[in-house]
């Protein structure tokens, strides 16, 4: 029983940060129709910025609890620095092109951000372990977990609910949904589509950076973290169905638990279990679990 | 065979002879770079084959890696080191994988096709990393290839492999051109324009896609075997998705029109890589990314469109010109598959199709 519980909790913790990343990815896809490979770079930028911010806050002698706030500020700073420039100056040039071509554009952006990250922070790993001790240990069943890890689950739920609420229960959200549904008619009705695009992209980047910032204490922040996150979050949104928020949640849970199960049961499969799950889902649901049927035009 | 195809093939043969002779005058580092680029080019040619049918594989690293491992394992364990035999083994491995995977994957399109191919290549990567019997994540060394029983010495090894690469690439490229201009190859373009119409006209889209996939996989295997020999080493990174990304890079840079452009693009990638490694070792990905963005922005149909754009086989008639320019327009607006009777009703940008 404890064994199953361990797998479950580990899987859900893993799923929680993955969900935050995938939420941003699926939102950006829904609104801008861009499957963004550079999304993983935003995650890495968030992690690096958080490492610097926590070091700064400790250096100033601020109370440790404030490092959580420092991480939040760091991820907002990343989103402000990256999102408007990328969307307005770079990506805008390629709207209306083939989906796969845009995928390659974001691959180019990913390559560039990789080196820019290295130029700013160097190649030596950063360790941000202080915040992880803030919540102490929590007993689940007969096992102890680091409280910080469980806090990540809360953060994921908050992010998910916030995005859902923002989309479905606010005027701005309704406007965004209208743009998702039909960009041209929205524009004709007086919606400033460009602003909606910037907003959606900003929130997408912010979510990736948030996930990066708050997982920084769990990992060593070093070059290469973006590469693994990209494919994982892609797998999540593909499993769930592109553009679907509940899909991203279910996808993250499936991926997280499958990975945790593999770590305990079949360590050899840890690296590829996620892809195996994704391939299996696509065999039975070619467009993901939560994709609505699409009208084909001849 | 059509006259225009013959003319292209003849040009290719002349080019091949010139490049072979040039090899004897070229410095060692250039020979190595060129051989590696040719290997990359053959794999990327496979992606171009798929692109003509409207899909892009982000997992061509799978067949590339499989071809390299198959050739490398046989060379290392059985002592069979003849270059041509190893290349054949690589190609056959690719074709077998393609024939198994192709029918399963041929019903997916767009992002889903790309992601499934990524998934498959990453599964191979994961398996190879854990297989410590064959080197795990370090891979293993491939013995020096021999050529019809002749083991070249240190100085002539690069040249011998370069010549082999040129011949193999030349033959591959010509076969590819013949395939592109054949009925089966032209079907790809029809599929890309509108799948439903092709089905309605009584041909199998599925068969075209599978055939393209198998051809592409065969090319991938040959390229992998070639680069395994050129580098003298294979490792699981051959199957990592960033490797596949570079193949797509080459294919996009080349564009779907010209076969020769694929090799030009591949050389450009290798040169950009070598020179940035030399002059900006810390920022070569930055250079590569900026270069890629510039190409997509200014040459969206690849460098091949500079000299082979709008190349068609059928004799020109005024009607053809109209349909062709419409098709080109369709592509430039993102291949929107909405068929409308009048141009006025044609959307100007690709809509998220409801």
Automatic annotation (TrEMBL), chain A:
Protein's cellular compartments: Cell membrane
Keywords from the UniProt entry: Amino-acid transport, Cell membrane, Membrane, Transmembrane, Transmembrane helix, Transport
One GO cellular component, as annotated: plasma membrane
Pfam families linked: BPD_transp_2
Coiled coil feature spans: none
Transmembrane segments: 12-35, 42-62, 68-89, 101-123, 143-167, 196-219, 272-290
Bilayer topology term: Multi-pass membrane protein
GO MF: transmembrane transporter activity
GO process terms (BP): amino acid transport
CDD domains: TM_PBP1_LivH_like
Protein family membership: Belongs to the binding-protein-dependent transport system permease family. LivHM subfamily.
Record-linked PANTHER family: ABC TRANSPORTER ATP-BINDING PROTEIN (PTHR11795:SF442), BRANCHED-CHAIN AMINO ACID TRANSPORT SYSTEM PERMEASE PROTEIN LIVH (PTHR11795)
UniProt name for this protein: High-affinity branched-chain amino acid transport system permease protein LivH
Lineage: Bacteria, Pseudomonadati, Pseudomonadota, Alphaproteobacteria, Rhodospirillales
UniProtKB/TrEMBL annotation, chain B:
InterPro entries hit by this protein: ABC_transp_permease, LivM-like
Broad class of where this protein is predominantly found: membrane
Membrane topology: Multi-pass membrane protein
Region annotation Disordered: where it falls in the sequence: 318-354
Pfam families in the record: BPD_transp_2 (PF02653)
Biased composition (Low complexity): 337-347
Subcellular location(s) per record: Cell membrane
GO-annotated cellular components: plasma membrane
Transmembrane regions listed in the UniProt entry: 9-31, 37-55, 86-106, 111-128, 159-180, 209-227, 247-272, 284-308
GO molecular function, one term: branched-chain amino acid transmembrane transporter activity
Keywords from the named record: Cell membrane, Membrane, Transmembrane, Transmembrane helix
Basic and acidic residues composition-biased segments: 318-332
Protein name: High-affinity branched-chain amino acid transport system permease protein LivH
Organism: Caenispirillum salinarum AK4
């Amino acid at each position: 029983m404890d064994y199953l519980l361990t797998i479950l909790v580990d899987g859900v913790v893993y799923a929680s940060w993955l969900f935050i990343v995938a939420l941003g990815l699926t939102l950006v896809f829904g609104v801008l129709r861009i499957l963004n490979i550079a999304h993983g770079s935003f995650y890495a930028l968030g992690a690096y910025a958080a490492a610097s911010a926590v070091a700064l806050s400790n250096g100033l002698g601020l109370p440790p609890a404030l490092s959580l706030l420092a991480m939040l500020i760091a991820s907002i700073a990343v989103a402000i620095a990256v999102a408007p420039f990328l969307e307005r100056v770079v990506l805008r040039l390629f709207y209306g092109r083939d989906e796969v071509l845009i995928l390659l554009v974001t691959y180019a952006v990913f390559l560039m951000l990789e080196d820019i990250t290295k130029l700013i922070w160097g190649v030596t790993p950063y360790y941000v372990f202080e915040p992880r001790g803030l919540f102490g240990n929590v007993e689940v069943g007969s096992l102890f977990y680091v409280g910080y890890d469980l806090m990540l689950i809360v953060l994921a739920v908050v992010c998910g609910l916030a995005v859902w609420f923002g989309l479905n229960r606010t005027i701005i959200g309704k406007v965004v949904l209208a743009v998702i549904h039909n960009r041209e008619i929205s524009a004709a009705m007086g919606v400033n589509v460009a602003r909606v695009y910037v907003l959606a992209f900003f929130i997408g980047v912010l979510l990736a950076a948030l996930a990066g910032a708050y997982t920084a204490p769990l990992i060593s922040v070093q070059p290469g973290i973006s590469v693994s996150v990209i494919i994982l979050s892609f797998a999540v949104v593909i499993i769930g169905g592109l553009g679907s928020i509940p899909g991203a949640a279910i996808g993250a849970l499936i991926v997280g638990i499958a990975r945790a199960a593999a770590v305990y049961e079949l360590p050899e499969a840890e690296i590829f279990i996620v892809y195996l799950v994704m391939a299996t889902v696509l065999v039975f649901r070619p467009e993901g679990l939560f994709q609505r049927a699409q009208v084909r035009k001849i | 065979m059509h006259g225009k195809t013959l003319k292209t093939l003849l040009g290719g043969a002349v080019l091949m002879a010139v490049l072979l002779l040039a090899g004897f005058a070229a410095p060692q580092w250039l020979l190595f770079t060129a051989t590696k680029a040719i290997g990359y080019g053959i794999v990327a040619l496979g992606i171009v084959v798929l692109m003509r049918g409207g899909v892009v594989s982000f997992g061509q690293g799978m067949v590339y890696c499989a071809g390299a491992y198959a050739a490398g394992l046989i060379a290392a364990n059985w002592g069979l080191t003849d270059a041509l035999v190893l290349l054949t083994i690589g190609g056959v491995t690719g074709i077998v994988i393609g024939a198994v995977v192709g029918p399963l994957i041929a019903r997916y399109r767009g992002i889903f096709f790309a992601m499934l191919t990524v998934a498959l290549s990453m599964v191979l990567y994961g398996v190879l990393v854990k297989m410590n019997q064959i080197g795990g994540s370090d891979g293993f060394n491939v013995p020096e290839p021999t050529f019809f029983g002749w083991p070249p010495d240190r100085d002539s090894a690069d040249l011998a492999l370069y010549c082999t690469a040129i011949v193999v690439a030349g033959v591959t490229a010509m076969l590819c051109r013949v395939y592109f201009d054949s009925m089966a190859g032209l079907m790809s373009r029809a599929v890309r324009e509108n799948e439903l119409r092709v089905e309605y006209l009584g041909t199998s889209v599925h068969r075209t896609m599978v055939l393209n996939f198998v051809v592409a996989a065969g090319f991938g295997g040959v390229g992998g075997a070639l680069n395994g020999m050129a580098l003298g080493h294979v490792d699981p990174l051959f199957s990592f998705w960033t490797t596949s990304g570079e193949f797509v890079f080459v294919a996009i840079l080349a564009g779907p029109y010209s076969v020769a452009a694929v090799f030009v693009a591949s050389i450009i990638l290798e040169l950009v890589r070598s020179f940035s490694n030399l002059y900006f070792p810390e920022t070569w990905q930055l250079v590569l990314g900026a270069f890629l963005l510039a190409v997509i922005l200014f040459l969206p149909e690849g460098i091949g469109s500079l000299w082979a754009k709008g190349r068609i086989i059928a004799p020109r008639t005024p009607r053809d010109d109209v349909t062709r320019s419409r098709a080109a327009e369709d592509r430039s607006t993102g291949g929107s598959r909405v068929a409308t009777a009048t141009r006025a009703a044609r959307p100007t940008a690709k809509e998220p199709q409801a």
